[in-house]
Amino acid sequence: MFSKLDENYEFYLNSNLEKYVGEWIAVVDGKIIPHGASVKRAYQECRKQCPGKTPFLACVPKSAAMGA
After folding, report:
1. 35 and 42 Cβ atoms separated by less than 8 Å
2. Which of 29, 35, 38, 51 has the fewest CB atoms within 10 Å, i.e. is most exposed?
3. Which of 17, 18, 65, 57 is nearest to 39 (CA)?
4. pLDDT for residue 2
5. pLDDT tens-digit readout, 9-55
6. What would the pLDDT profile of 4-18 be if each residue is shown by its tens digit?
7. Assigned domain for 53 exists
8. Which domain, by its residues, includes 43?
9. What pTM was estimated for this model as a whole?
10. Residue 56: CB partners within 8 Å, gap ≥ 6?
């Protein structure tokens, strides 16, 4: 059985994230909650919007880096 973090990672891998290229995103419960230019900002916004949840944080790479 997958944990919530695993589910959020799967969401990240299988989503079209073109509009977030170069930004940090926080994924909680299969949704992108905040995003921004820094991991600190994404994390802080996530803590405000989803208290008690553990986000999956990632910087969305340029599509060439992802093999697209």
Report:
1. yes
2. 51
3. 57
4. 56
5. 999 999 999 999 999 999 999 999 889 999 999 999 999 999 999 89
6. 778 999 999 999 999
7. yes
8. 4-63
9. 0.80
10. 5, 8, 9, 11, 12, 26, 27, 28
25 C-beta neighbours (distance < 10 Å), count: 22
Two tokens, residue 22 = 């170069």
Q: What is the DSSP letter of 36?
A: E
Q: Is residue 68 part of a domain?
A: no
CB contact at 8 A, 28 and 50: yes
The Cβ-side half-sphere exposure at 5, using a 13 Å CA radius, reads 5
Q: Quote the tokens at residue 25.
A: 């995103």
Structure tokens at 53: 């949840």
Is residue 13 one of the residues assigned to a domain?
yes
